[in-house]
């Protein structure tokens, strides 16, 4: 079989779920037993895209936008309602087990590791499951363990690991069989800043060294911005945007938000003097939200300037929420802030 | 498929080994749990002995014959339970979404779930059942020949098959309702309790359920009648012995079909 040029090809993909309507009261409950009436929800609606070998694609959307449904269709867990889906040139649902040998999947916030066993034993079991020759398994495991700094936790039962340690073990588990396509569904969800950065660095290196095709869903724009070369944005099941990260950055300007809690009321006294590339987003009581462009004014510098002027109780640095980006795409903003 | 089975056998073996290792590291709790299970099920046997201090026989079955039935029920339920420990946390697997991980493996989901968790300590019930069968057989002084052994083996294999099928069907029910319901327990634990006594004891409708719908009664009663040389008021005996594997196989098939239906539902709706 000749390998198709694209690893993934999705055309006119649609996925509908039936949601049963809940009626109140005893009568409603009885009627619910007999009637099959319900609402049809379109989780994915006429989505088309293709992914070529070696691409690093971010799949972005708010919660419930249709990201996970698409992912589940790509790995063959769910059947598409209509449209055509090909992964490695095959229908992923019909050839789920064959494709599984070439796909690595990470679902954030769930575990594929055996809870009561140490990771090393999970890796061994997965090696058997994916028919990896013993020597190959050991070599790959050692390399991943080394890169992810897992040496110390290899023999600790999984239930005793921190979320960050566990996520790095999950990554190892998903990559043992050297998959050609790696799909990561919210791989950084719930992780702290340091753990997030470790995962990102690892993925970037994996892509650079092996040229592995990566598809990554996230509602954290930081993940997408720092990792991906191409971004798909989905909202309410429809594909809103498909382009390189630069084009998305033009949409949201890769601005960040600094939230400050002041000791005094923000409106009192002299107005805050702000540097170029920074403006007040919202201000109420003791809290003030600044939006800034880190290229013009780095975060530490901005914080220093505010500190000189006011007494600060607390600080929080945030990425622009994904909902914001989606809203801007709808409004058709091509440039912002200038 | 043959390749799948080889991989599955190796995974199953590895899980078994991991289970032994794990239990060795908690030797104390392993012993406690095993002894605990032996005691609980052992008390049932003691109760049976006290019952027979007041009566001679039940529906024409003597004490040691009933002990044999009781032992067989325990062996089959215990092994059926032990074989399917991987299904124990199906509600949790589905609720947490971890079942998706099952579906991205290069093995049929059923085999993977079956092999992903093996708990040996569950075997306590079977050990105690084997003990009951041994002492009953010693007291009954049967003339053992190959046909008796074949009957015993058939009875155990078919019994385990039916109970394992029930546990799989019980897990498959989670595809529709995530809350675990007690419905299937009526047939597994309840069924084992019913078949501790000859099914000829029960009224027709109840008997029919455990003979023909959920055949835990069929696979225990019919071979026992033949093995112990009883007269069978139900007239199932001569042909029924040959039908036993067929009955067990058909029931397992129905349970697996129920699992498939559940899987189809999951693939359509995504849990």
UniProtKB/TrEMBL annotation, chain A:
Pfam families, per database record: ABC_tran
Leader peptide range in chain numbering: none
Occurrences of domain ABC transporter (ranges): 8-261
SUPFAM superfamilies: P-loop containing nucleoside triphosphate hydrolases (SSF52540)
Entry superkingdom: Bacteria
Alphabetic keyword roster: ATP-binding, Nucleotide-binding, Transport
UniProt xrefs under InterPro entries: AAA+_ATPase, ABC_transporter-like_ATP-bd, ABC_transporter_ATP-binding, P-loop_NTPase
A molecular function GO annotation: ATP hydrolysis activity
Gene3D superfamilies: P-loop containing nucleotide triphosphate hydrolases
Protein name: ATP-binding cassette domain-containing protein
Upper taxonomic lineage: Bacteria, Candidatus Eiseniibacteriota
From TrEMBL, chain B:
Superkingdom per UniProt: Bacteria
Keywords: Membrane, Transmembrane, Transmembrane helix
InterPro entries for this protein: ABC-2_transporter-like
Pfam families listed in its UniProt record: ABC2_membrane_6
Transmembrane segments: 34-55, 67-87, 148-169, 209-227, 239-259
Keyword Transmembrane part of the UniProt annotation: yes
Record has Transmembrane as a keyword: yes
Designated name of the protein: ABC-2 family transporter protein
UniProt lineage: Bacteria, Candidatus Eiseniibacteriota
